[in-house]
Amino acid sequence: MAKDALTAQNLVQTAHVVGLRFSELFAGMDLTPTQFAVLIELERLDDGEEGLTQAELARRVLVRPQSVGVLLTSLVEQGLVTRTGPGGRGRRVGIALTEAGRAALERAWPPVRAFNTPAALGLTPAQAGMLDELLEHVRRALRADD
Amino acid sequence: MAKDALTAQNLVQTAHVVGLRFSELFAGMDLTPTQFAVLIELERLDDGEEGLTQAELARRVLVRPQSVGVLLTSLVEQGLVTRTGPGGRGRRVGIALTEAGRAALERAWPPVRAFNTPAALGLTPAQAGMLDELLEHVRRALRADD
DNA sequence: TCCTCTGAATCAGACAACTGATAACGTACG
DNA sequence: CGTACGTTATCAGTTGTCTGATTCAGAGGA
């Protein structure tokens, strides 16, 4: 069977390489790709929203809540986010960006945007749009399986 | 900036979820997704080829040679591959599939093929073909960066 | 009002990759 | 023929996820 018939495997292998590049990009900013993903979910909050819970962040960045817990601890230590509420099992905590967090994101955006341009990925804008669409299909299909 | 403009990030996040499903699939067969990738590279050898080196396998499955070394040790222990040559630093070793390895692959193929069908990924065959093509563009672009 | 069940957060350990360093082979060139 | 350099495989430690289990809150229903 031709290798290119293994679309899921292709996806995972290709993304693995992309992920390594991402990690390199963030290494200079003391962040991991998932921490960055968490920060941009928090940046995206509308006015009036009081933060997101750890569980909600986990859903949005597609990792386990336990993993988000660990990385949030690190972000709190770096002063990039705040955790409100007493914490503990069963207790929802509110997570919000700090001013330092906003500043860190502002510094991160230029190289992140550069890396995400279609050209950086060897694609045309139309192809990048298509890739995003196809990935959305895949995410939906896997969500339906749950 | 809209999240869907972060194509690279989309790719990594989506593939992460796909990768978890892959791991679940292989867990029942005492394999990891990367071990499976190694086995299919070995299966694909033409007649007359004497095996692949660890370095060559690493290039083909897109992980570090040190990581391939560890996983090969595991595959040898499971009797799925053989290592020929004395081994050691600087010494190329030949890696080849055993009969047990071929049998393990035969058992693995049906669920793997099922998981890689376009339908399983929420795609049409044309879309799956397109995704494979786009992923190849991305891999090429990143290879050129090296 | 009480009980049950679902969801949330924490705890603990495992794992499959990674990075960095090192030792030796093998090839090419002077 | 000897040297230098690139490649190969090994060694050692780290990391960012995972899984499984546990504890507790809170909502909903009886």
Automatic annotation (TrEMBL), chains A, B:
This is HTH marR-type domain-containing protein. Pfam families: MarR_2. It comes from Actinomycetospora straminea. Residues 4-140 form the HTH marR-type domain. It comes from the Bacteria. PANTHER family: HTH-TYPE TRANSCRIPTIONAL REPRESSOR YETL (PTHR33164:SF43), TRANSCRIPTIONAL REGULATOR, MARR FAMILY (PTHR33164). Coiled coil: none annotated.
